[in-house]
Request: fold
Amino acid sequence: MSSGRFTIGVDLGGTNLRIAAYAEESGLLETILLSTRLRDGRDAVAADMCQGIRRLLDRYARAGSCAGIGIGSPGPLELPAGRLREPPNLPGWDGFELRATIEGALGMAVEIENDANAAALGECVLGTGKTRGIDSLCMLTLGTGVGGGIILDGKIWHGMVGMAGEAGHVNIWTDGAPCGCGGRGCLEAYASATAIRRMTLEMIARENAPLLAALGESNPHFTSRDVAELAESGDPHAKRIFDDVGRALGIGLASLVNMLNLPLYVLGGGVAKAWTLLCRPLFEELRRRSYVYRLTDPGEDRAAETKPRKTYVVLAELGSDAGLLGACLLPFANLSGETGGDRAD
Reply:
């Protein structure tokens, strides 16, 4: 690493905890991957986080100065306090003072951000936004849950208390499946990895779906990727599940397109890897439900060169690194005033 500034970014997930050092001129310098010890409690996870941060600080402080530390955390997250509020995918973390805990342990200021916002920032600055020359976008992260982040003119849009962009809890079906947020029929209940597993088990119980049943028997801990592989191989029952996921995404995106009228909507996360299964029902539903999209549909040119006054729905470019890179960018963005948005104490 050449002499200069570096940052440390943390991507806190329900399964994995990733901590990285990053320099603007070199990109990611080193990444530490740990399991998120949710069963041991939030204090244990915070201790792991601080230990990894200290390790990277010790290693890279010899070659440059640390410009700051950024953390992407599952939400809802109250900003700027950095306080978690009933996070569906971090049970037992309600009211946890994440910012105060980490800052108290390290004796340093920390930038805290919703993980989907961090991923959206990463995609805007280093991924699809950079490639297409666009500085306003909405990103959906399709993983254990469904996160959402909005970037307007290069700045994260936080809303009143930092909870803007919770697109995973846009209602898709009235009185639909229960969601971890306490509501019913949310996008997260139909387009997340957790939802795909639930819908698979429901189909096995409800219908004669021999290949899905065989999957459940041979691998009780099967994942959404396992179901996607069956769908890609032609199993009609697995394909129906991903048709439903695609339709749910199309309905959710139609609401977002109608409300936001942004030029770019980006899909990331593990479920998005099944794009070939999702795209047909997604775009059918999107065209049917959003007149704004119909008027700005790029058609078959959606993957080609970006044209003005068109609405693009595309896959993320940074893959699983989007959230981690976005967390690394947070201190730089704060120094230049790029994260902006409305923050209230």
Summary: The chain has a mean pLDDT of 92. The longest strand covers residues 64-73. The chain has two domains: 4-120+321-336, 132-317.
